[in-house]
Write a structure and sequence with these properties.
Elements lengths: L7 H20 L2 H22 L4 H5 L5 H8 L1 H9 L10 H12 L19 E3 L14 E4 L8 E4 L1 E3 L9 H14 L2 E3 L7 H6 L2 E6 L15 H8 L4 E7 L10 E3 L6 H7 L7 E3 L9 H14 L5 E5 L4 H14 L5 E5 L10 H6 L4 H14 L7 E5 L5 H9 L4 E4 L1 H6 L22 H4 L4 H25 L13 E6 L2 E4 H4 L18 H9 L18 H4 L1
Helix pairs in contact: 1-2, 6-18, 7-18, 11-12, 12-14, 15-18
Length: 550
């Protein structure tokens, strides 16, 4: 039989087993016996590799082929610890993670010897500083959220914990974040999985997210229950209600939690049975048109006792958001806030195509929402939140300049409680006990320590934001405007923020005379309807109005 080099390791194991066994018997030597046992096990493994039909590589490379699977399994760790550069974003750079870790631990977060950024490359952005900087002593930056129809406005921090459900996060992670929010005076979004006992235990302010599964406020058939919602929403710990239309990680996609993964605590929080798969449908059943959506928002506000009610979405069809705005005008019912999630959001496990290719990035989505509300004359009544890879004071300052009133972050607070970006969130094998329901794994996360880190990270980030605002000559970061930023669009060119992310004129969508430079906005506004999300017509090529066509 012809011997192939790929079988060399397997043959060596076979021969070593034979010789080691002979020597162990002949000399009664324990070391030879141990060697025989090890190589015998490898020989058996090789035989099984040759006989199995699942993996071609093991049939061709018995024994040694397992090295390929071993190296593949630890590839993320090898890259993260040995190969990755400080600014390689996959999905967060080492530099960004280190900044969160340092601020959460309260250790030195300064760095020597100048920037490592390529300040002449396309995409680089910077803040224009003032010759008359200001020292801001109070960095507990807050805004009031609540429109004309809200009777219980909320004095919110401008940097809160974004939506992450109990079930996706461990009990200890939820409790650490909520306790930290209580210590630091900011809010935690519950995520769509309902309000768990661990959200309540910490005593921190909560934003109750109501998604298409209506967890915590649903009937047995999965439909919305007004009675259960009112019971939840009127809890004093609940400060705002967030209707989730979509999320950046997987916009337009539902989900399923298999019955095997539903624990008694998850069932309690979601209000679901344990022996049935839990379905989160892609769309809401409580409404199907823009007008019905606004009426539902009004209903939620009434049921909650007048608390701020808004919605969260990742922008998809821009016309559909304009449909919602037209419904606000038609019904007179306006949300108190809108949270714009960028497609770069990512705590939710998602199909690769959705994570990579569906939804609008946050900066473009935020600018569109902000300017649409300005164009409809509604911006003054509606607050805007933004979410999507916001980890530093610069990230916060930039989105505030582009139209946001406050920011949410999920993964930054995950880093604050110890996330190492192992990207094993969906496996239930999180190495630091954050994204797992394995009690033995989650006990590694000590709530008393990590809650302090959460509060410290928030405080130090707000202090850094105050320093940035002061350097720009401002007294509050909410005063940042696009012109405070410069954006390098090409390696040799840069533009003022007003040129790249301009604020469009108030009321221009409702004005009798159109602005020629904004014809695309006017055309899209004309196609939008308060009665339906469906397009009145599908434009092929550039859209032309009937008046223009004539």
């Amino acid at each position: 039989m012809k011997l192939y080099p790929r079988y060399a390791i397997f043959i060596i194991c076979c021969l070593t087993t034979i010789f080691a066994t002979v020597f162990a018997i002949a000399f009664s030597n324990v070391w030879w016996a141990a060697l025989a046992v090890v190589t015998a096990a490898l020989t058996v493994l090789g035989i099984l590799d040759l006989r199995q039909k699942k993996h071609s590589i093991l049939r061709n490379y018995p024994v040694i082929g397992h090295m390929r699977f071993l190296l593949e399994s630890i590839r993320p760790e090898i890259r993260q610890y040995m190969i990755e550069g400080d600014r390689d974003e996959e999905p967060f750079s080492r530099e960004a993670r280190a900044l969160v870790y340092q601020r959460a631990k309260g250790v030195e977060d300064k760095r020597p010897f100048g920037t490592t950024q390529n300040v002449y490359s396309s995409g680089y952005a910077w803040i224009t500083h003032s010759a008359a900087p200001v020292v801001i002593k109070d960095t507990d930056f807050r805004i009031s959220i609540g429109g004309p129809d809200c009777t219980q406005p909320y004095a919110s921090s401008i940097y809160n914990i974004s939506a992450m459900s109990f079930g996706s996060l461990s009990a200890n992670a939820v409790l650490a974040m909520n306790t930290g929010a209580k210590l630091g005076g900011f809010a935690q979004d519950t995520g769509e999985g309902g309000i768990s006992r661990y959200h309540r235990q910490g005593g921190g302010d909560l934003i109750y997210q109501v998604a298409s599964g209506y967890f915590g406020c649903r009937n047995q058939d999965g439909s919305f229950s007004a009675e259960k919602f009112a019971e939840q929403a009127r809890d004093p710990q609940i400060k705002m209600i967030e209707l989730k239309l979509s999320q950046g990680a997987k916009p337009g996609h539902g989900g399923m939690l298999p019955a095997s993964k539903i624990s008694p605590e998850i069932a309690e929080a979601r209000g679901i049975p344990m022996n049935i798969d839990c379905i989160s449908p892609p769309a809401h059943s409580a409404f199907s048109t823009p007008t019905e959506m606004m009426e539902f928002i009004g209903k939620l506000r009434d049921l909650s006792g007048g608390k701020p009610v808004g919605f969260k979405l990742c922008i998809g069809h821009r016309r559909e958001f304009m449909c919602m705005v037209k419904a606000m005008l038609a019904t007179g019912i306006k949300p108190d806030f809108i949270v714009v999630d960028g497609k770069e959001g990512g705590t939710g496990a998602a199909p690769l195509e959705f994570a990579n290719r569906v939804g609008m990035p946050m900066l473009e989505g935020l600018t569109f929402v902000h300017n649409t509300l300005r164009g409809a004359g509604l911006r003054g009544d509606i607050r805007i939140g933004a979410a999507g890879k916001i980890t530093s004071a610069f990230d916060i300052a930039r989105v505030l300049a582009l139209g946001a009133d406050w920011c949410n972050s999920a993964r930054a607070y995950m880093f604050a409680v110890g996330c190492i970006q192992a990207q094993a969130c969906h496996t239930n094998k999180c190495p630091v006990g954050i994204a797992t329901q394995d009690r033995k794994r989650q006990r590694a996360l000590v709530v008393e320590d990590k809650s302090q880190r959460v509060a410290r990270f928030h405080k130090n980030t707000m202090h850094a934001l105050g320093e940035l605002a002061g350097a720009a000559g401002l007294t509050h970061p909410g005063d940042f405007m696009p012109y405070h930023f410069m954006f390098r669009t090409k390696d040799s060119e840069f533009r003022d923020g007003n040129e790249v992310y301009a604020y469009l004129p108030d009321g221009f969508l409702l004005a009798s005379e159109e602005i020629p430079e904004l014809s695309e906005w006017h055309n899209r506004w004309d196609r939008a309807s308060a009665e339906t999300f469906a397009p009145s017509e599908i434009p092929f090529g550039p859209f032309r109005r009937k008046s223009q066509a004539a």
